[in-house]
Amino acid sequence: MERRAMILFAHGARAASWVEPFERLRALTQARLPGVAVSLAFLELMEPRLPQAVAGLAAAGVTQLTVVPVFLGQGGHVLHDLPLMVAQLRLDHPHVAIEVAEAIGENAGVLAAIADYCVGAGKPA
Amino acid sequence: MERRAMILFAHGARAASWVEPFERLRALTQARLPGVAVSLAFLELMEPRLPQAVAGLAAAGVTQLTVVPVFLGQGGHVLHDLPLMVAQLRLDHPHVAIEVAEAIGENAGVLAAIADYCVGAGKPA
Questions:
Q1: B42 forms bridges with which residues in the sheet?
Q2: What SUPFAM superfamilies does the record point to (chains A, B) (predicted)?
Q3: What residues 17-76 of chain A have any CB closer than 8 A to a CB of chain B?
Q4: Residue B1's pLDDT is what?
Q5: How many structural domains is chain B composed of?
Q6: Suppose A103 and one of A69, A87, A98, B116 were both cysteines; which one would form an S-S bond, judging by CB atoms 3.0 to 4.6 Å apart?
Q7: ipTM above 0.95?
Q8: What is the residue range of A113's domain?
Q9: B89: domain CATH number?
């Protein structure tokens, strides 16, 4: 039986407050994907890290995993670190089909929404 | 005469490709705020840094400046580094009224658009 999961993959930070919008995003996404287990994982500074999160999902029988890089810019973390990690994870968990989505900053709808917010912030009060 | 400007303040990265969505965001925002000079500035690793960008705008006669933190999470960079920099910039440029908007990740419309993208990425092809 196919079991689907999604990981929202974010950078991580020292300040606990940093994660709050990512938790809201996870809840918003989970509410609209009831058949998919949606969780957060981090590159550094916060837990769980991506390999730990994927190992947990694999142990729970997940067979289809989508990783969404919740990064606006595609720099070394998205273009270098993440592909290396995913290549290793595919070797470690051959029964999990791991797909990596484009980074959120590549999506026109996301950029349009950020532009909407900036435009609102720039208008005289 | 009032002269308005907006700075989209982002982290910066080593990889030049990282900045591309921020440049698209700047263009989208500028197109809808024709009376406001919209530019990018960075915390680190890319130029111009925020103090340099503000100095240039002040020298050009800008009197009203809105800084939008293009950060999803509010960690040390947004909660600590940016307020310290802005306090110094207000001392250095007393004729520029500097307003700091909420970080983009605090905006419900932005999070909804990211959730839309994640939901699309999580649906079976």
A1: B10, B49
A2: Chelatase (SSF53800)
A3: 17-22, 24-25, 28-29, 32-33, 36, 38, 66, 68, 70, 72-76
A4: 78
A5: 1
A6: A69
A7: yes
A8: 4-122
A9: 3.40.50.1400
